[in-house]
Specification:
12 helices; globular
């Protein structure tokens, strides 16, 4: 990796770590459905305009089925689930749980793609499971009726992210990555649109909440996708995946600086186990 690649990697981790902060501010005011719809629609439209300007053709008709499948599994469902979760739990906690995605990816790859589940990967999955168990205990957090549901929503979103690898490798191996970035977000937004009449904002929208939604869409979804695919092209998919290790660190830092969040020792220990498990799985 060149110096520019390391710079992009750290910048991407800072942006995606910040995306949990943006959601934590916007979701309690705007609701999960509006936040999920807004981030995908705005980012998808911005990428569509950008790709049009640079002459990239996503070939909508040719790859429509792939964009729809990935839009459901990787965009619509996880965005909605995280929107719900971040109405109820700290941003840093959601970011730590997000690090379990590669573990689910390894399990699905073994089940559906015939990849070998090595002892190192199994150990990594076990470490991740122990980390989740430490985080999910209520003792260190203020008791809330939705705490367990929010944890479950984060893990369900990670299951979706993990299964995305199967969808891409089996059905979208020849689909351009930039096309996936724009196509999946716009199709995901189209899927979420019917939910809006049934999910009104729980509070009066504020300028702060709307600004955070805009930042989430433009930075986290639009710019983040461009940086990620550029990193894959320049440094390879395996090295690009190391952003998973850095995201929770930035989320914890941003949560402390901007939201006054703090995590109990059990959550920090659980996060360390999850990160260790992620390293074992991705290097196994």
């Amino acid at each position: 990796m060149q110096a520019a690649d390391y710079t992009r990697l750290v910048f991407l981790a800072a942006i995606w770590g910040g995306s949990f902060i943006f959601q934590r501010v916007a979701a309690p005011v705007l609701g999960a459905a509006l936040v999920a719809e807004g981030r995908l629609l705005i980012a998808g439209l911005m990428l569509a305009v950008w790709f049009r300007l640079i002459g990239f053709d996503p070939q909508w008709r040719r790859h429509a089925r792939q964009y729809i499948a990935i839009g459901l599994v990787n965009m619509a469902l996880p965005s909605l689930l995280y929107g719900f979760a971040l109405m109820h739990i700290p941003a840093a906690l959601a970011a730590i749980l997000n690090s379990t995605s590669p573990m689910f990816g390894a399990l699905f790859a073994a089940l559906f793609l015939g990849e070998r589940l090595t002892a190192r990967k199994l150990l990594g999955c076990a470490a991740g499971a122990c980390g989740v168990a430490l985080i999910a205990q209520l003792g260190g957090f203020t008791s809330t009726p939705m705490f367990a549901a929010a944890i479950a929503a984060c893990l369900a979103a990670c299951v979706c992210y993990g299964y995305t690898g199967v969808v891409v490798r089996k059905y979208a191996a020849q689909t351009p990555s930039r096309g996936i970035a724009v196509g999946s977000q716009l199709t995901g937004a189209a899927m979420l649109l019917p939910l809006l009449p049934f999910s009104p904002p729980p509070a009066e929208p504020t300028a702060l909440a709307l600004t955070n939604l805009l930042a989430l869409a433009l930075l986290g979804n639009a710019l983040g996708m461009v940086l990620y695919f550029r990193l894959i092209a320049d440094a390879g998919a395996t090295r690009a995946l190391t952003v998973t290790y850095l995201m929770p660190l930035f989320a914890v830092l941003w949560g402390m600086l901007f939201l006054g969040e703090s995590l109990p020792p059990s959550a920090l220990a659980g996060g360390a186990l999850i990160l260790a498990g992620t390293v074992l799985v991705t290097r196994g």
